[in-house]
Design brief:
Blueprint (H helix, E strand, L loop, with lengths): L14 H18 L7 H8 L3 H7 L4 H17 L10 H18 L1 H8 L8 H22 L6 H23 L6 H20 L3 H14 L1
Helix pairs in contact: 1-2, 1-4, 1-6, 2-3, 4-6, 4-7, 5-6, 5-9, 7-8, 8-9, 9-10
């Protein structure tokens, strides 16, 4: 008789590993169905565990799980723009976008769940989680620009660009990740320079930054 391969030994997951497993399952479900249509039974089935186990980790039920899943994705996204402030700004921004778009590519379900709203499960806390990602990205960009006190026009310009990056990323997923990610990254950097240039015509602070960006290119 041909000897059978030994059955792999069962490995008990740590608390952190089990929690991450449940959050990954929840993010995937929330990305493809509106949260109110996702039950804890669905999460348990997707994770291959029992419903009581889900409750053990999230005694607050689906709302707690939903918020925890959003926070998990948000924490990863907040670090994407945390690029060392060395060298010209545009290459730094390109490297930050590389990390951002890598997250979008590898965690498309989680990214969609984080940014696509319209759910009755949303609360002021979930809205704050999403807004926290945008504010953190903006603060990183201001630091890259060397601006400690951005004026209202500069703040609005940077926040508008971050919103455009989010929208482009979601559309990119809908378009089956076309154009290629490198082309998308370069285009978004060019968009940043373009919107800054438009604002520079009306704002001296932004005009000085645009001049510095052009000088670095030269």
């Amino acid at each position: 008789m041909t000897p059978q391969a030994p059955t792999p030994a069962y490995r008990r997951l740590s608390v952190e590993e089990r929690r991450a497993q449940l959050l990954d399952a929840a993010l995937s479900l929330f990305a493809h169905r509106v949260p109110e249509d996702v039950s804890l039974d669905d999460v348990a089935e997707a994770a291959g565990v029992s419903r009581p186990l889900v409750y053990r980790y999230f005694p607050g039920g689906k709302q707690q799980l939903y918020e925890a899943a959003l926070r998990s994705a948000a924490e990863e996204l907040q670090h994407c723009f945390d690029e060392p402030r060395e060298g010209p700004v545009k290459p730094r921004l390109a490297r930050a976008l590389d990390r951002y778009l890598t997250f979008v590519d590898e965690h498309d379900a989680g990214f969609s769940a984080l940014l696509q709203g319209g759910s009755v499960v949303e609360t002021s806390r979930t809205t704050a989680i999403v807004d926290g990602v945008r504010r953190a990205a903006a603060e990183h960009i201001f630091r890259h620009l060397g601006v400690a006190a951005p004026g209202p026009r500069l703040r609005m310009t940077v926040r508008m660009w971050i919103t455009a990056v989010e929208a482009a990323s979601l559309i990119w997923l809908d378009e089956e990740k076309q154009p290629p990610v490198g082309e998308l990254r370069d285009w978004l950097v060019e968009q940043f320079v373009a919107v800054m240039t438009v604002t520079a015509a009306r704002d001296a602070q932004t005009a000085a930054l645009v001049a510095a960006l052009a000088s670095a290119d030269g």
